[in-house]
């Protein structure tokens, strides 16, 4: 029965009701009383003074009303009980609906983050207070957090609570640990610093130094105009620096793109950039995934399904350098076919025949003409027996048109593109004298990077000596010094079972058969700073005996002795990673001498020889770990808000791409995927004959005489590259084609492979939304949005030239549109060209009449396509593919040396991932992040008795 007001009155106030005296006590009285009660205050005579409320009145009203409000309420009503958790939360994660992990995770297995949530490293009791979302990507979320201990902001990547992502994140941790600690201990090589990692609520959290905006945002900031050349040079040099170190460590980044290069604003010091996101990285020679790299930056060998090395990062790097200059992605293809077509059209030539012969996807893109196809030539001047399929041929084969994206700049050769940038003055003769040399140097620099043949593509070290980077005068085509070939690529996992019965592939090791001596190249400028020899370019197997004797820092460079690699299969169960250091501890696969390592004789798994970072050997194909029912849902809604998809934060569009890929990957996982067909030895021997001979140097030692310095390519020139055996190069002489097929209308920037597609129209007929075009947040308005933080960030940019001289110091002018509006000149500032919008064209379609063939829609800049790597393995081994029940997952787990096979992993509520992580990291010697916080540097989990972390 409902109680009436009268009855209530008669019954007296409810027990919780404040009494008049407490409720309506004045705030001042409460404060006075409060202070009067404080012993310390009393002691200091504050009580007496507190009756004077003038100090309180001076505060702003909001402060006065809310300061100590909880205590005030408590004063007013002693029964008032403030419960923090009942506060409305400001959620940062999308969606924020609790689904998994006892309501802590959403449907995507992302930890639901909200403002002021604490992420705690329970081992060190270090707390990170979530403040805002920086990005939501494939592997989880990155949040800006306050680190109370250091009074600074950090970026914390909270990995999804799924084994697959967890595994790959362990890889990220281990690779970055290695890079940070062993190869760049002094933080000099433009690689992001990892500060901490810890498990939290079944999520792995990785703490990074807080960096600024990424390079895509920087370009976008200026309406996708390019940067001034000196900035292109400076950033390129720094990225190269990172790449040199990575190559020295044998690490392939696999997802290099402008979004993964972040600005590091430093007040009063040289600004620069840092490479982030090693979440897709792997070790050279131990490549697992074939679908890697974001599409625009995907190398030809990856597109074609050819074994890859660190050279793929150099391709991406070349794309980035060009993009920094022109402001737009170089190959913004809407499909892989489109990307490859653009490469061929813009770079000239095509991948060499031996690559095409071996690559597993060749038939997707090329037609084998049986013999030398008339009129078709590879880029090195040799005729080819392959030619790229026409769109019609692709359509006839696939019963649907290939997706072809828009062209955002004049079609034509890359050199022309660079020379005529910003494309308003189409006559390259307009190029100021002063810029000619720079442009020539840039074009020549790009020549060595966007090189179809990975064996001829310049290494980062070779590229770093290019005049474009060093700032020396450019006097003619650069010939890189000969570099000792380091790591022939390992055939990506192709074998189901290794002969020894172990699981090479499960361990992430590509069997590399063949007697190849691998030693640290004499010209490795970045020997890791560690006392012993090390396996830096980890991942190659060498045959017995080939392991060199020159023990020392450069000796056991990344080699695995195929006869000594210890793979065990034992019914006794897993032995974990068995990473044993000769130095007396376990560490990340660095054994100073493979020959002396202890041989363990039990367990499944693999003991890594020098150079193989432990966790990496997980062969962390998510497919092996994703529980059958695990969800990898990434609805567009979940990705649209933050970084990955938003122009405001870089890799916009990528999430969807990645989501699609993850979905594909999961499907693939379930369906299985055929192994690559080529036996490893074939590939190895091929490589030995290729790059191990005169390799790079010979490729560039020939036929460059015709590259006439100072001469810009004229309209009659077909191939902008200096040609082997052809004395034309960039000669202005159109007669120098030497039998090359004259492209139709190079003059007019017409495509080599005419697709009859107007440049401003998309021929995509697919009803399936293309992730490349999917960018819900994209708009011209967003392009024009000022971002003061970015301006501020850049305001303190100081750039130095090659000699260390400051070329741009002090505060740069704010990046305001009026700084550049209406300017058609390369501004004496960060950016060097007006945007299409500002180059006098009205919004909407921009018709470059003078090109006659190119219409551009500035409204349709490419939706960024950070298409992710897709993880699928080539392994057919059912033993490592989860087959639908926990036990199988567990057995897969145990094969990777994960803990105790007798206690199956709990997928959601338990701690096995944390335990596994802890064990792995402990075994791998990843101690640094916790050093100083743990006893003896060991990593031990902060587990409650029940296995769950106590909060
Ligand atoms: N150290 C950092 N400082 C500032 N922002 C960062 C940092 N690390 C990452 N971010 C932001 O978070 C975003 C996602 O980070 P990251 O690329 O490492 O995650 P991811 O899941 O691999 O994303 P993606 O799927 O886009 O590759 C980055 O694009 C960047 O904007």
Automatic annotation (TrEMBL):
It comes from the Eukaryota. Residues 730-739 have a biased composition (Polar residues). One of its GO terms (molecular function) is protein serine/threonine kinase activity. ATP binds at residue 157. Keywords: ATP-binding, Kinase, Nucleotide-binding, Serine/threonine-protein kinase, Transferase. This is Protein kinase domain-containing protein. Residues 1-10 have a biased composition (Basic and acidic residues). PROSITE patterns: PROTEIN_KINASE_ATP (PS00107), PROTEIN_KINASE_DOM (PS50011), PROTEIN_KINASE_ST (PS00108). Residues 1-20, 730-781, 928-951 are annotated as: Disordered. InterPro entries: Kinase-like_dom_sf, Prot_kinase_dom, Protein_kinase_ATP_BS, Ser/Thr_kinase_AS, Ser_Thr_dual-spec_kinase. Residues 757-771 have a biased composition (Low complexity). GO terms for cellular component: cytoplasm. Pfam families: Pkinase (PF00069). The keyword Transferase applies. The keyword Kinase applies. It comes from Triticum turgidum subsp. durum (Durum wheat). Residues 128-469 form the Protein kinase domain. Belongs to the protein kinase superfamily. CMGC Ser/Thr protein kinase family. MNB/DYRK subfamily.
């Amino acid at each position: 029965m409902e109680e009436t007001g009268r009855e209530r009155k008669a019954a007296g106030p409810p027990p919780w009701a404040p009494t008049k005296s407490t409720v309506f006590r004045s705030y001042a009285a409460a404060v006075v009383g409060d202070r009067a009660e404080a012993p310390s205050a009393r002691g200091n005579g504050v009580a007496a003074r507190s009756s004077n409320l003038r100090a309180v009145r001076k505060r702003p009203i909001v402060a006065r009303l809310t300061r100590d409000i909880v205590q005030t309420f408590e004063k007013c009503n002693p029964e008032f009980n403030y419960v923090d958790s009942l506060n409305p939360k400001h959620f940062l994660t999308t969606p924020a609906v609790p689904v998994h992990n006892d309501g802590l995770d959403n449907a995507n297995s992302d930890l639901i983050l909200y403002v002021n949530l604490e992420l705690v490293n329970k081992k060190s009791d270090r707390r990170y207070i979530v403040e805002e979302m920086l990005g939501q990507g494939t592997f989880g979320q990155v949040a800006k957090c306050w680190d109370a201990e250091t009074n600074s902001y950090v970026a914390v990547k909270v990995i999804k609570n799924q084994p697959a992502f967890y595994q790959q994140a362990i890889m990220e941790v281990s690779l970055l640990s290695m890079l940070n600690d062993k190869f760049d201990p002094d933080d000099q090589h433009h690689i992001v610093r990892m500060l901490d990692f810890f498990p939290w609520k079944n999520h792995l959290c990785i703490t990074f130094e807080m960096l600024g905006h990424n390079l895509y945002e920087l370009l976008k900031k200026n309406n996708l105009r390019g940067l001034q050349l000196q900035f292109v040079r400076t950033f390129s040099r720094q990225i190269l620096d990172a790449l040199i170190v990575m190559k020295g460590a044998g690490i392939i980044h696999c997802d290099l793109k402008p979004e993964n290069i972040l600005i590091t604003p430093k007040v009063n010091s040289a600004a620069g950039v840092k490479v982030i996101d090693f979440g897709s990285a792997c070790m050279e020679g131990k490549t697992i995934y074939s679908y890697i790299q974001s599409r625009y930056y995907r190398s030809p060998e990856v597109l074609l399904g050819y074994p890859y090395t660190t050279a793929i990062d150099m391709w991406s790097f070349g794309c980035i350098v060009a993009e920094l200059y022109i402001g737009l992605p170089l190959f913004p293809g809407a499909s892989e076919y489109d990307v490859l077509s653009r490469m061929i059209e813009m770079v000239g030539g095509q991948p060499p025949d031996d690559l095409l012969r071996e690559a597993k996807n060749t038939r997707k893109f090329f037609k084998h003409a049986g013999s030398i196809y008339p009129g078709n030539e590879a880029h090195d001047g040799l005729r080819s027996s392959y030619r790229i399929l026409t769109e019609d041929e692709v359509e006839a084969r696939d019963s649907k048109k290939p997706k072809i994206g828009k062209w955002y700049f004049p079609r034509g050769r890359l050199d022309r593109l660079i020379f005529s940038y910003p494309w308003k003055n189409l006559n390259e003769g307009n190029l100021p004298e002063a810029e000619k040399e720079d442009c020539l140097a840039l074009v020549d620099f790009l020549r060595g990077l966007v090189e179809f043949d990975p064996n001829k593509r310049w290494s980062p070290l070779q590229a770093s000596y290019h005049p474009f980077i060093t700032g020396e005068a450019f006097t003619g085509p650069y010939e890189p010094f000969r570099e000792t070939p380091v790591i022939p690529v390992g055939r990506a996992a192709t074998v189901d079972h290794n002969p020894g019965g172990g699981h090479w592939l499960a361990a992430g090791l590509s069997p590399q058969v063949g007697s190849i001596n691998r030693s640290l190249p004499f010209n490795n400028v970045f020997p890791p700073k560690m006392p012993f020899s090390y396996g830096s370019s980890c991942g190659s197997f060498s045959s017995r005996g080939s392991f060199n004797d020159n023990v020392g820092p450069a000796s056991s460079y990344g080699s695995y002795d195929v006869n000594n690699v210890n793979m065990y299969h034992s019914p006794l169960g897993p032995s974990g990673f068995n990473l044993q250091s000769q130095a007396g501890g376990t560490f990340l696969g660095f054994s100073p001498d493979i020959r002396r390592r202890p041989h363990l004789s039990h367990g499944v798994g693999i003991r890594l020889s020098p150079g193989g970072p432990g966790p990496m050997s997980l062969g962390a194909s998510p497919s092996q770990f994703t529980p059958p029912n695990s969800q990898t849902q990434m609805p567009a809604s979940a990705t649209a808000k933050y970084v990955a998809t938003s122009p405001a934060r870089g890799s916009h569009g990528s999430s969807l791409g990645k989501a699609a890929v993850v979905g594909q990957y999961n499907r693939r996982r379930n369906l299985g995927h055929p192994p690559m067909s080529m036996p490893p030895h074939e590939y190895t021997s091929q490589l030995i004959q290729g790059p191990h001979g005169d390799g790079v140097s010979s490729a560039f030692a020939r036929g460059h005489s015709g590259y006439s310095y100072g001469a810009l390519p004229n309209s009659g020139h077909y191939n902008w590259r200096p040609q082997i055996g052809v004395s034309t190069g960039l000669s202005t002489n159109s007669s120098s084609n030497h039998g090359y097929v004259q492209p139709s209308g190079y003059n007019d920037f017409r495509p080599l492979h005419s697709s009859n597609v107007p440049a401003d129209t998309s021929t995509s007929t697919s009803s399936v939304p293309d992730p490349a075009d999917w960018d819900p947040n994209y708009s011209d308005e967003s392009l024009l949005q000022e971002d003061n933080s970015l301006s501020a960030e850049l305001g303190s940019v100081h750039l130095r030239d090659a000699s260390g001289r400051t070329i741009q110091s002090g505060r740069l002018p704010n990046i305001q549109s009026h700084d550049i509006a209406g300017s058609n000149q390369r501004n004496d500032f960060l950016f060097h060209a007006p945007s299409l919008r500002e180059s006098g064209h009205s919004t909407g379609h921009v018709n470059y009449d003078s090109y006659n063939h190119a219409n551009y829609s500035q409204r349709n800049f490419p939706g960024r396509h950070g298409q992710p790597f897709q993880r699928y393995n080539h392994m057919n081994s059912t033993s490592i593919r989860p087959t639908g029940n926990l036990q199988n997952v567990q057995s897969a787990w145990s094969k990777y040396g994960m803990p105790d096979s007798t206690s199956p992993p709990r997928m959601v509520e338990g701690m096995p991932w944390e335990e596994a992580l802890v064990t792995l990291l402990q075994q791998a010697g990843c101690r640094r992040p916790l050093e100083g916080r743990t006893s003896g540097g060991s990593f031990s989990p902060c587990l409650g008795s029940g296995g769950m972390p106590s909060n």
